[in-house]
Amino acid sequence: MTELFSESLVRVELPHREHVRALLDDMLWGRLTRRIVLEYPGLYLPAAERVMNEALGFLRLLAQEPRAGYALSPRVGVGWHVFVLHTREYAAFCAGLAGRFLHHTPRDEDGTSAEAGQRAGGVVRTLAAMRARGLAVDEALWFGMSTGTCCVGYAEEVLA
Among 37, 41, 98, 149, whose CB has the most other CB atoms within 10 angstroms? Predict the structure, then answer.
């Protein structure tokens, strides 16, 4: 079991958020969720699916509000990190969802990033925006860690 995922998180299965899950075809969904399970020993497939659901909801938010610079939790970041490593699929996903690339900006070792000032309110602000857009939130994956946020997302034109 890793520091990111406690025993209480890995065994709970929540209903799928089909409207977000449908953003990926079954083959890619399976590849990503299985990769999460492989990289986090002790994490079961239902928990990996929860993580991926949240990451997709977050990416949908970034697509809708590209300049906001939303932050996400380390647990949800796992889903994004796994997805972004599948570069071709991730780039095609971004083009289809947002019409542009959705950039991942990691938090530096000292807890800052080039866009640290853009993420005032961090995760709380992100979740409020997700809810305002009708995106369901699995709070257990967003809260309960002292490490704060893992990264910030932006659309391509913001970095140009």
Answer: 149
Measured CA to CA, the distance from residue 27 to residue 127 in angstroms comes to 28
* Extents of the domains making up the chain: 7-159
Given a contact cutoff of 8 angstroms between Cβ atoms, the answer to whether 29 and 23 are in contact is no
pLDDT of 33-50, one tens digit each? 999 999 998 889 999 999
Burial class, 25, CB count within 10 angstroms (exposed 0-12 / middle 13-18 / buried 19+): exposed
> Which residues, 6 or more positions from 53, have their beta carbon under 8 angstroms from its beta carbon?
16, 17, 20, 21, 79, 138
Q: Are 152 and 115 in contact (CB under 8 A)?
A: yes
